[in-house]
Amino acid sequence: MKEITNQKRRGFVLGLGKVMGAAGVVGISGIAPQTFAKGRSANLKSVSVHKGTNGRERLVFALDRSVRHKISTLTSPDRVVIDFIDTSAKTRLKIGRNSSNKNQKLLVKNLRQATRNTKDFRVVLDMNEKSSAASALKSNDKGYFLEVALSPSRARKTPQEEIKKAISAVTAGVVRKPMTIAIDAGHGGRDPGAVGKKGTKEKHIALQIAKRLKRKIDRQPGMKGVLIRDGDYYLSLRKRINKARKHRADLFISIHADANPNPRLTGSSVYILSQKGASSEAAKWLANSENSYENRMAGADLHRGNKVVSSLLLDLSLADTIDRSHEIARDVLKELGAVNDLLRHQVESAGFVVLKSPDIPSVLVETAFISNPREEKRLKTAKHQEKLATAIFKGLRRYQVASLNRDDETQYS
């Protein structure tokens, strides 16, 4: 499948990468190597401050073009210094305070500004207390925005707290619904799935990996896992989709262990819904909307008398869902390649029924070949199951970060 890309969204993801380091935060000082346009100097138009949680603040500098910049912190007294390369300001900057922070004491006490080297522009933030700083450059059709996330350095934080801080800094402390991930352990009950030479059943392996994955997801801030089946019982494929929709899942991942008559075949693979499968599912949804009083998809009603609108809604939703499914699948496949051989190095497309929810990005993972004696042996071990669950989780976490970016991208529109 040809990869569908969105350059604006990808640029924003790269911006977040500058905010999140090994523990979730960029170093306190250094150069942020943002891409920048050649030609005339950038114009720094305004700055505003937004109060976050736990004493954190976020400054937003509005510019008319992309810039390079440097950010560092100084002590005695406490300051944050931001150098905008090849930039000027036509008006004097003043920190704009909104109604929510008008009467509150902020981290930033004062803002000073000056031109340096005839072409660069320096902003000095006098701080009320010692603070760390991280930056990210964003853009939309209104222009460019350099966000500077400030956090009081009152105590050393754990890596988990640093991850929370990084997410909070980029999202300005906005409370969002946790990303709900439906984890579908393939087969179950009277359907054992594939069976290895030593009698290992796919349904058991899939459930064990699914449970390990759920534990990892539930420990990640802003994520919640839901097991489609939590025991050895049978569920039809359509019921699996319906259960995910009942839980209002934001994405669906189905876990399997592949089989092939050739016992030498080995490797992991990841699938998303094929275009042919998407087309057949769209036809089914439109038919259902004709025969029912109400059929909802992605928050909109599909009903009789509005076939054109219903068809358009389905096409748009399916295109976006497949795009996001491919994004997840690509990241999961890359992580799986670090812990197991890959059957193929690209995302595959197929018409699997469990991938056919039009408004839930869905991915099917074939963790390994249970029909291969060596892979069957590894699949039975807790150690390898844990590695596979970790790899899948890392791919999902990348999607979580990208989704936070997409939500935040509309903030200045």
Notes on the protein architecture:
Helix 5 runs antiparallel to helix 6 (307-336) and helix 6 packs across helix 8. Helices cover 32% and strands 28% of the residues. The model is unreliable at 1-38, 169-175, 285-306 and 409-413 (pLDDT under 50). With 413 residues, the protein is of the alpha/beta class. The protein has 2 domains: 7-175, Sandwich (Immunoglobulin-like); 179-409, Zn-dependent exopeptidases (Aminopeptidase). Strands 2, 3, 6, 7, 10 and 11 form a 6-stranded mixed beta sheet that branches. It has a 6-stranded mixed beta sheet with strand order 13-12-14-19-15-18, sandwiched between helices. A 5-stranded antiparallel beta sheet has the order 1-4-5-9-8, with no helix packed on it. The chain has helices spanning 7-19, 159-171, 202-219, 237-246, 275-290, 307-336, 373-379, 382-408; strands spanning 30-32, 42-51, 57-63, 69-74, 79-84, 87-88, 95-97, 108-116, 120-127, 131-140, 143-152, 179-185, 223-227, 251-258, 269-273, 295-297, 300-302, 348-350, 362-369. The protein is elongated. Strand 4 and strand 5 (79-84) form a beta hairpin. It is built from 8 helices and 19 strands.
